[in-house]
Amino acid sequence: MKRRRQTRNNSDVMQYIALLAWSLLFVPNGVFGQNDMKRVPIDNNAMIYVPQQDRLFVTTPSGQATGNSLCVIDPYFGTIDTCYFIGSEPGVMAVSEDGTYMYIGLSGAPRIVRFNLLTKAVDAQINLGSSGVTGSFYAEDIEVLPGSSTSFVVSRRNQGFSPRHEGLAVYDGTVRRPNTTPGHTGSNSITFASNGQLFGYNNETTEYGFRRLIISGNGVSELAVYPGLVNNFSTEIESQGNRIYSSRGHVVDVSTPTPNLVGTFSNLGGFPVMEVSPDSNYVYFITFSLSEPQYKFEKYNKTTFNKISSEPLTGISGGLKGLINWGIDGKLAFNTDKLVVIMRNCTSLLTSPLQMPSNAGGCTGTEVALSAPEGFNSYFWSNGAVGQTIFVGQHGQYSVRASDSLGCLGPPSNIVSVQFDWPPSAPWISGSSLVRICQGGSVTLSTFGSGNDSYMWSNGATGTSITVNQPGQYRVRAISPNGCVGNYSQPVTVELLPETVPPQPVIEVLGSTTFCSGDSVILSAPEGYHSYTWSNSNGARLITVKNTGTFTVRVGTPLGCMSETSVPVSVTVFPVPAQPAILANGNLLASSAVSGNQWFLNGEPIPGATGRFYSASLSGFYSVQTTINGCSSPMSNLYNHFVVSTSSLPENEPMTAFPNPAQDVVYLKMNDEANTTCEVFVYNLTGRMAHSETCHFESGMGRMEIEHLAPGIYWLEVVDRGQKMRKKLKLVKI
Predict the structure, then answer these.
(1) Using an 8 Å Cβ cutoff, are 499 and 561 in contact?
(2) Taking the CB of residue 407, how many other CB atoms lie within 10 A of it?
(3) Is the peptide bond preceding residue 163 cis, with omega within 30 degrees of 0?
(4) N or C: which end of the chain has fewer CB within 10 A?
């Protein structure tokens, strides 16, 4: 039976989707007997039923809130579950046997879109090509190849020429096989028989050509044409078993090399649409005519071809499009361009869907049991199986419905997604295949895999790694999320050595761990071991450390049993300060080091002389040494100093400056050696002030930064104790 529905084009399709409304039409003593017909007023182009989801799907025209969409209808409650945007003017549909993909032809664009029914999204766009004469090609009918979800055959048409047929083409995904059938006259409607053979019918011209087609790896071709076998303009053809049924009532047997007309359903009125019952001996038609009653529901015997009953349908409007079975108990639904009409055999007392686990799985080559809740009369599964518990061995989506005591089926359960996994490949254990451990020691064995696999070790432990302290062989195998157990890895052999693990060593420090650069300290490990491994890669028992760092050691036996790492010992080495230099200006001596100074006279330290400056009162050999963090610099060079008598200084020169010329710093010396604070002003030769600052004098000595001054000659002026002292000296800035 075909799992797609070709629809007619109608010029009067209404461009809206109305609010959902139900109305009941009871047909007394009719075909369905107390059956109700549910009307869903929704403008639509085509309708199809997907058994895996137990839902009706319709495509909607543009010009409305949910136009150009694929809308899902719950046939049990008549609700529109949701709508998904598809593209410009979606129409004809076809569904793969496994319920994975739906292929939808667009009338507003020359392409077919593939809708993933699992992810509920369009995942592929298939262009149908074009002709330089007739323009772009559009989908007229679609059939998915048996046993495939990604390959399909499409009947193509143009939009402006008659005859509009443009031949058949086969696609694998988005790639077209090279061979196509000729255009113009050909197979407008197509269907697969149960033997997998493809048949087509020309419903556009008076040729009435019934065709046997063949699909190969290169594409599709016509095998034979049987003119006149099926007469009149049949909208569609539909297969069941080895018989092909036309909507005009012809029944063709295709089990033999030459198809034979085996019967005709007589007295069909108007312009019919057809559905062949899959579980009974009936064929159903909805007919339309201009006379009253315009719409009729007609039932025929599949074997005798005789009409069983004919019932008028009221409250129906719009152009008739198609009739389909829905549900596993043979319920029917038909659509016009304005309505979807759902025909139900009975109303179940079961109003709530059965609750099933959302996922199930197993290993490839096995079966998984799906069990519905107990307590119901019978159970019907979406794959055609019956019973409370079924066993499935293929990927897919499954649902179940239960019947009440009257045999009426309730709504379908939630969908159970079944996934089968291949057993994982054998993992591997990192490292060597032979591991030796010492008595009292252990080793960690690790494996690495991918995905969500879990791991089981031969000793019963789980996880990606285990720590073992016993000899033996260890293997691991992976287990998939669905419980598929893979093969064991290659073994790793653990051997126990006759030696024990040494105790944690303690480092002995021979000396101080804090010293100056150039000195050292000896670190000693315990005696009596075969090997020593220091953190600085030294292999001796004693190591001499001259640099800052943290040091640890491990000790080992002759067979390689290693201790734990010792507690670390930290060594800090301070740098030796640079050798200072002495600057002199008269009796004032200055060290190049800012701090840490000790002055010496004739090799003896001068008590209390620890500042940067020292005023020499005695002649002799002066030197200075810098000490920081207990580390002393080399002694400065000796400075042979002769004391200059202050009586030789002119009284009108209360201040001197040195060095002169100066570069960055100039030192100011006041003769009274007072501790005071003065304001110092610097003027250029034009008399303009170039700099000023507050200078603090200590023992008559002050310091001023001049690095920011431009090279040149300046005058200095010092203001102290309210008096102006002005010394005209040539301060040269270089």
Answers:
(1) yes
(2) 12
(3) yes
(4) C
